[in-house]
UniProtKB/TrEMBL annotation:
GO biological process: sodium ion transport
Protein name, entry field: Sodium ion-translocating decarboxylase subunit beta
GO molecular function: lyase activity
Membrane topology category: Multi-pass membrane protein
Compartments in which it is found: Cell membrane
Residue spans crossing the bilayer: 21-38, 45-65, 77-100, 112-136, 171-194, 215-241, 261-284, 291-309, 352-379
Domain of life: Bacteria
Assigned GO CC terms: plasma membrane
Organism: Enterocloster aldenensis
Length: 381
């Protein structure tokens, strides 16, 4: 082989000669996401792996090729990561980690939080019917609507169970992007729907929750929810198993592993594989735009539903409940609860709403999983 052929082969291998305008557009989007994650601090644990997966697949599309698409039959690295999403393995492991990291005490101490978490699921059901009106099939609409719960793992889980893998990429990116952008999306609605007086409401300190209550809670929830909706067992079961690790006090090693090492490994695998579904060819089309817009509408309606129900409870209790905590009824734990705290402290720096908001926040995780189970039951999955 002469020198000219060597140079020609090297040049032909360069990505510059194989990318189109769509790839470059997605590369720019990936760089914007990286900027938001690194410079602005918008949920970097999610955005950095997602953005980097997006960057990789639009520079080197073969990294997401299946074995059938490659000449040597081995498949691309991130394709194998993505199979763990499609098989619902990574979403379930995320729930295990979330359970091990989360204190369910605020929810146990204030059971009305369950209803506030349910109210925030308004976005899911409103998006479902809107998606039907826009021409999506029932299963597609169900998979899209879960974005309204701001719960990426549940979105992936339901999409896989309903066999809608062709739209899993846009759904996953929308769900995780909105989770990361909770601090931007929620506050305007929270301030619009509440008065300054309501935002300044200080809530009474939550009652102490006994160790026995904390141990019994995950067991009881698993039995009740999974008996009613067995299809939720992979999510609710893993969530409650992780929490039982935490609260039992006898398996500290398992609790530490689930909430730290395992959780972060899964986030890396899931985030990069989700980002890698955003190749220009698959992502830049009218269907994707509809999904992203529907997801935003769903998330906004979820926030609105939670805040409005919080206002109703505020009236019923004579001003004992701050409506801001209702917005935490979406599943983004603990991001949404932190936003409730932030908006409340802006009205009154001495106001501390975080623990109160964690109740609806945890209830929202359970509520979104139940909504997914409901859709699976409706479609006979």
């Amino acid at each position: 082989m002469d020198f000219g052929n060597i140079v020609n082969n090297l040049l032909n291998q360069m990505a510059f000669f194989h990318l189109d305008a769509g790839n470059y557009a997605m590369i720019v989007v990936a760089l914007v996401f990286l900027y938001l994650a690194i410079r602005k601090g918008y949920e970097p644990l999610l955005l950095i792996p997602i953005a980097f997966g997006m960057l990789l697949v639009n520079i080197y599309p073969e990294i997401m090729y299946s074995p059938e698409q490659t000449s040597n039959g081995t498949g691309g690295l991130l394709w194998y990561f993505f199979q763990l999403d499609e098989w619902s393995i990574l979403p379930s492991l995320i729930f295990l980690g979330v359970g091990a990291m989360t204190d369910f005490g605020p929810l146990i101490a204030n059971p009305i939080s369950f209803i506030m978490g349910a109210a925030a699921q308004l976005g899911i059901y409103s998006a479902y019917f809107l998606a039907i009106l826009l021409g999506f099939s029932g299963k597609e609409a169900a998979a899209i609507s879960i974005i309204g719960g701001a719960d990426g793992p549940t979105s992936l889980f339901l999409c896989s169970k309903l066999g809608q893998t062709q739209i899993m990429g846009p759904i996953a990116v929308a769900a995780y992007s909105y989770m990361a952008l909770v601090p931007i999306i929620q506050p305007p609605f929270m301030k619009l729907l509440t008065t300054e007086k309501e935002r300044k409401i200080k809530m009474e300190q939550l009652r102490p929750v006994s160790k026995l209550e904390k141990i019994l809670f995950p067991i009881i929830v698993t039995v009740v929810v999974c008996l009613i909706l067995p299809s939720t067992a992979p999510l609710v079961g893993m969530l409650m198993l992780g929490n039982l690790f935490r609260e039992s006090g006898v398996v500290k090693q398992l609790a530490d592993t689930a909430s730290n090492a395992l959780m972060y490994i899964v986030v890396i695998l899931l985030g990069t594989s989700v980002g890698a579904t955003t190749s220009a060819e698959a992502f830049l089309n009218a269907t994707t735009v509809k999904i992203v817009v529907l997801g935003l509408v769903a998330f906004c309606f979820g926030t609105i539903g939670g805040v409005l129900f919080g206002k109703l409870l505020c009236k019923i209790t004579g001003g004992k409940i701050n409506p801001l905590i209702g917005s935490a009824g979406v599943s983004a734990v603990p991001m949404a609860a932190r936003v409730s705290q932030k908006v409340g402290s802006e009205a009154d720096p001495t106001n501390f709403l975080l623990m109160h908001a964690m109740g609806p926040n945890v209830a929202g995780v359970i509520g979104t999983a139940v909504a997914a189970g409901t859709f699976m039951a409706i479609f006979g999955v």
